[in-house]
Specification:
about 290 residues; 8-stranded mixed beta sheet; 11 helices; alpha/beta; about 15% strand; 12 strands; 4-stranded mixed beta sheet
Length: about 290
């Protein structure tokens, strides 16, 4: 069994169970540094999809610094594990994450926010090189919605609710809510969400381009794992290049983005995996990618 890392697994044990038709391997540890706010598992038939479950049920998975630090630690370990091709992040059926922990930030001051660079450590998921899929059930509000939007793909359960209600608290989104909604959904919808705090359901989120697909609540995690398994069949090297190309579309002009894409396309011709992929296609066999 693969060792996840000294930070949260000094001893791994394996339990097999069925979860929407998927075998999941649980990691447990005798270490006192086991996670407090999240659970980590390996899923899929080949155990090549990492699953991170937010686990603050009494607080509806409200995002606190401790939870976000643990997510960052888990992502560091999963990124360093070559056997993992994709990462799924989910919450409970009631709440993906109902927002940031308001009690934790209630007494912050402007000076503390500036000198402490408040929320800077919350963006680790957006910097992850491997594909990250959010499997959203229930509430994804405020920081929870922002957290989901940091992921590369969002799958939603049919009862999911998305929103940016910060305006009702006398503040505004601080982890990308005003920026990513505008880029993904357009100015009008972003303004409506951010200025009213109104929630949208899963179907409207899909129509607006916020989520990729909607599934029954009890199926969404399994479907996200299936997606991660499919992505994991391809070259990790080429997947990373492709992810960079798509993300560049949000950061630059069309002309510069096209140039970036073309150069990355050209770069694939310096890889063994590009040659293997095309050779396997011509020879009508499955490719054997080595991430080289």
């Amino acid at each position: 069994m693969a060792q996840i890392g000294k930070t949260f697994a000094t001893r791994a044990c394996s339990l097999a169970k069925a979860a929407n038709g998927h075998s999941i391997r649980f990691y447990c540890s005798a270490s006192p540094k086991a996670f407090e706010f999240i659970k980590t598992e390996l899923a899929g038939e080949k155990k090549n999809v990492a699953l991170i479950t937010l686990n603050r049920p009494k607080a509806l998975n409200a995002l606190c610094n401790g939870l976000m630090n643990e997510v960052s630690q888990a992502l560091d370990k999963f990124e360093a594990d070559d056997s993992i091709g994709a990462i799924v992040i989910t919450g409970s059926e009631k709440a993906f994450a109902a927002g940031a922990d308001i009690k934790e930030m209630q007494n912050n001051t402007y000076a503390k926010c500036i000198t402490g660079n408040f929320l800077n450590n919350w963006t680790r998921v957006a910097k992850t090189q491997k594909p990250v899929i959010a499997a959203v059930n229930g509430y994804a509000l405020g920081g929870g919605c922002e957290f989901a939007m940091m992921c590369d793909i969002i799958y939603a359960g049919d009862k999911a609710k998305f929103g940016q209600p910060e305006i009702a608290l006398g503040t505004i989104p601080g982890a990308g809510g005003s920026q990513r909604t505008a880029r993904v959904m357009g100015k009008s919808k972003a303004m409506e969400m951010c200025l009213t705090g109104n929630m949208i359901n899963a179907e409207e989120a899909e129509r607006s381009g916020l989520v990729s697909k909607v599934f029954p609540a009890d199926k969404v995690v399994g479907e996200a794992i299936k997606l991660g398994e499919k992505i994991s069949t391809f070259s990790p090297l080429i997947v990373q290049l492709c992810k960079e190309a798509v993300n560049t579309a949000f950061e630059t002009t069309l002309n510069e983005g096209l140039k970036f894409e073309r150069r990355h396309f050209h770069a694939t011709f310096a890889t063994k995996d590009r040659l293997e992929g095309m050779t396997a296609f011509v020879e009508k066999r499955a490719p054997n990618f080595t991430s080289e």
